[in-house]
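Entry 14. Ran structure prediction on the chain below.
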Amino acid sequence: MARLGRDVVSVVAVVVLLVMAAAETASAAVSCSEVTSAVMPCLGYAMGNAASPSPACCNGVRSLSSRASSAADRQAACSCLKSMTGRFGRSMGNAANIPSQCGVNVGVPISPNVDCSK
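Output, structure tokens:
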């Protein structure tokens, strides 16, 4: 009987750990490395070196948009994009046009001046 009690406690402990791990994974925001990887193919267009965004760029923007489903994800992605546009400055003049050129609504303007907390 004592063994059965230990087995139940062990199973409950494993379930609790799994639930905690799932909650942690669900609440994790999109990382800057994911954002950078998704939009890297867009740099040529963003910097004015291409007439339109490449298919790889648009696929990356669509993928990022679908992964950034929570408010925390969108804020994290926004902060990363804001930082990127700020680093490249004026040379990123086409960056704001990428979502519309790709037919994706990202919900925030791509700009070094955007308030990502909203």
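The chain is about 65% helix and 0% strand. Will compare against last week's run tomorrow.
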